[in-house]
Amino acid sequence: MSLRLLTVSALALGLVAAPAVAQDARTEAQAAAIRDAALKANVALDYVTQITTRFGPRPAGSRAEQQAAAWAADYLRAQGFQNVRIEEFPLVGWERGEDSGAIVGAHPQPLVLPATPRGGIEADVVRFTTLDELRAAPDASVRGKIVYVDLGQMHAMQDGSGYGPQTRVRGAGPGVAAAKGAAAFILRSVGSDENRLPHTGTTQYVDGKATVPSFALSAPDADQVSRLIALGEPVRLRLSSTARTYQTHSQNVIGDLPGATRPDEIIVLGSHMDSWDQGTGAIDDAAGGAITIAAAKAIAASGQRAARTIRVVLYGSEEVAQPTRETGNGGGVYARNQGAAVEKHIIAGESDFGADRVYALRLPAGAQGSDFQKAANRVLYPIGVLSSSQVETEGGVDVGPLGPLGVPFFGLAQDGTRYFDLHHTANDTLDKIDPAQLSQNVAAWAGLVWLIADSEVDFRALRQAAAAAPSAR
Hints:
38% of the residues lie in helices and 22% in strands. It has 473 residues and is of the alpha/beta class.
């Protein structure tokens, strides 16, 4: 090849590459502008205020959740979303009814607690400090008694990592106690606060059936029971609950901002509609819906239309366990209903950790150190969000079922230091949301989602290349 041809070829290559470079720079500038506009908008605060005020608590399958879903669909339409639809599915719902608890015998005193599923029990208490200790206990030492597992106070951590070990006890503990013949199960509330407000939460069915009546004690009441036991006093409790399960339905609410050039490529922004019944579900998880809706709306309001489709999903029935695969949860229903279309789901992210500030961006495997991560860092750093080397692998309860189907996840990690003081309690109310931190969330989501939606980055391919890299070396 002659020198002249080499020069022409290099010039030709430069002319072909230049538009792509310009496109990337333009997309990044647009992301920064969308980020800044999102900081000033009020869609998120409007949504979370309206849904918590209009409908209050929204237990899965309840009339309140169903009405809230219908209202949210109209809200999405009013915000300019297209293809808005409601995806219904059968559900075994749970209703609290009335509950009570008291220490009886030589030291009678009331307890404050939530309960599942039905009560009317009086028995002696046997205390354990771990689930493994309960598993190892002879059946005879448990039979006919109220099993009490006290793991001690949950530690408040920015990433919420103290929650998992304790909530596993709440989920599995009743089944273990039932198998040993226990009359009921109680545990220290899974929360990081010291308020006399118990934290509710779901337990697991065993072989499709409920196990034993199960209750959570507020931290002060748990301490009281543990102190009495430590003093060598026999502790006997009377527990009562009229809680029930019933056949109903829940639903996912879905709305799209269709892509301009590649509308079949989908980015899922997830949160959940249902809440527990004591508060109004403001931080868990009306805030998540507010953040994802407002982020997508900020992109639409910019006058720009991304190449890929941005899809907001408000999932139903995230909070309650189900006896069979055929009922609930919204995340599993959505994933199963996608069929072959799931192969065009580019990436998914979930907002379900309250409304306090985002501090880190986590991307799928293979994206660490990439040009995309560098661009995202430039867009997010000015609002206090740093790119993390930690790989996002789980997504969240709602978007999680997409993972085994090949969909990668991104994560915008929030400060969860106070989240477990509030979640699943009567304190989960609108006044706990800091509007400035809520807006920072929206800005982070809006800037990042625009970068993803208007790019050609293939996160599936990056993840596959990362997985193959060790065998290639």
